[in-house]
Amino acid sequence: MTAMVKAEAVHKSFGLVEVLKGIDLEVKTGEVFCLIGPSGSGKSTFLRCINHLEKVNAGRLYVDGELVGYREKGDKLYELKDSEVALQRRDIGMVFQRFNLFPHMTAVENVMEAPVQVKGTSRAQARERARELLEKVGLADKAGSYPAQLSGGQQQRVAIARALAMDPKLMLFDEPTSALDPELVGDVLDVMRDLAESGMTMVVVTHEMGFAREVGDSLVFMDGGVVVESGDPREVLTNPQHERTQAFLSKVL
């Protein structure tokens, strides 16, 4: 199986604080890859490096065999132009903790916006596809609603539909359920479960250990900017080998 995401010795600092201290990992095409760990462990920063929302300070990150954010010449890296980075991002969908929907647009308009603006899809075609995607996430009846009229869980499902509208080959989820009321979490996880079953490659930063155990193909526990432990989610969550993993899981399971 080919790697959809490959990280080689990825480092990232904010000022003097080193947040990622040499991350090496591989996400296979078609797998659900879960990142867990305490707050401040670097997992969300790593996720944001995958689509160059954060720039790595050292190391290399590849998506589908292509170096992210840089061009390599000899042994030197040159940063890509914004337009070139935007082209790479077209293939990567991202769902944030806070849904980031446009408040002045209805659900269907939010979903159709990127294909129209970025891909030049006709409005009629984009609207039809947006309606299909809203149906897929269980919100066909909310197409004409504005974000303020939707619950947090519904907004997050619109955000997932919006990311899917660009037909990405990779989906990134940054704690997609942590801002939601507990009773709304299930609907969002159901949509993610369906997406996983359809074969979408997904990298998920999550606190939902049940989801990781049930849906995840691989799991990485990060702490202090390093990968502490990785493996099959059921194995790591049931029988963690490292004491830092054991200490973390004893608090959350």
TrEMBL record:
<dbReference type="GO" id="GO:0005524">
    <property type="term" value="F:ATP binding"/>
</dbReference>
<dbReference type="InterPro" id="IPR030679">
    <property type="entry name" value="ABC_ATPase_HisP-typ"/>
</dbReference>
<dbReference type="GO" id="GO:0015426">
    <property type="term" value="F:ATPase-coupled polar amino acid-transporter activity"/>
</dbReference>
<protein>
    <recommendedName>
        <fullName>ABC-type polar-amino-acid transporter</fullName>
        <ecNumber>7.4.2.1</ecNumber>
    </recommendedName>
</protein>
<feature type="domain" description="ABC transporter">
    <location>
        <begin position="5"/>
        <end position="249"/>
    </location>
</feature>
<keyword id="KW-0547">Nucleotide-binding</keyword>
<dbReference type="GO" id="GO:0016887">
    <property type="term" value="F:ATP hydrolysis activity"/>
</dbReference>
<keyword id="KW-1003">Cell membrane</keyword>
<dbReference type="Pfam" id="PF00005">
    <property type="entry name" value="ABC_tran"/>
</dbReference>
<dbReference type="GO" id="GO:0005886">
    <property type="term" value="C:plasma membrane"/>
</dbReference>
<dbReference type="InterPro" id="IPR027417">
    <property type="entry name" value="P-loop_NTPase"/>
</dbReference>
<keyword id="KW-0067">ATP-binding</keyword>
<dbReference type="InterPro" id="IPR003593">
    <property type="entry name" value="AAA+_ATPase"/>
</dbReference>
<dbReference type="InterPro" id="IPR050086">
    <property type="entry name" value="MetN_ABC_transporter-like"/>
</dbReference>
<keyword id="KW-0813">Transport</keyword>
<dbReference type="InterPro" id="IPR003439">
    <property type="entry name" value="ABC_transporter-like_ATP-bd"/>
</dbReference>
<dbReference type="InterPro" id="IPR017871">
    <property type="entry name" value="ABC_transporter-like_CS"/>
</dbReference>
<keyword id="KW-0472">Membrane</keyword>
